[in-house]
């Protein structure tokens, strides 16, 4: 449910000037732009974290590099002097 209380399918149907809903609410077809195209629910949530994909790949690459190429000193605190 969107903030106005109408279903998105109703808004898409309201874009048609011959729809029953458009005849009941003359402003409904002017509201359809809010829930279609670049403003659809998927597109709004896709752009919440713009750098998350690149950062995730970079972090995974660094973790892989660290695991395979950097020397690990795993003998901390064992008392081998």
Automatic annotation (TrEMBL):
A GO cellular component entry from the record: mitochondrial inner membrane
PANTHER family in the record: NADH DEHYDROGENASE [UBIQUINONE] 1 BETA SUBCOMPLEX SUBUNIT 3, NADH-UBIQUINONE OXIDOREDUCTASE B12 SUBUNIT
Main location: mitochondrion
Family: Belongs to the complex I NDUFB3 subunit family.
Top-level taxon: Eukaryota
InterPro entries: NDUFB3
Protein name: Putative NADH-ubiquinone oxidoreductase B12 subunit
BP GO terms, sorted: electron transport chain; mitochondrial respiratory chain complex I assembly
Keywords, comma-separated and alphabetical: Electron transport, Membrane, Mitochondrion, Mitochondrion inner membrane, Respiratory chain, Transmembrane, Transmembrane helix, Transport, Ubiquinone
Physiological role: Accessory subunit of the mitochondrial membrane respiratory chain NADH dehydrogenase (Complex I), that is believed not to be involved in catalysis. Complex I functions in the transfer of electrons from NADH to the respiratory chain. The immediate electron acceptor for the enzyme is believed to be ubiquinone.
């Amino acid at each position: 449910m969107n903030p106005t209380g109408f279903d998105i399918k109703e808004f898409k149907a309201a874009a048609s000037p011959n729809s029953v809903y458009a005849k009941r609410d003359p402003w409904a077809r002017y509201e359809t732009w809010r829930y279609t195209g670049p403003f659809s629910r998927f597109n709004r949530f896709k752009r919440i974290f713009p750098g998350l994909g690149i950062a995730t790949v970079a972090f995974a690459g660094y973790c892989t590099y660290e695991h395979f190429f950097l020397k690990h000193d795993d003998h901390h605190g064992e008392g081998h002097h």
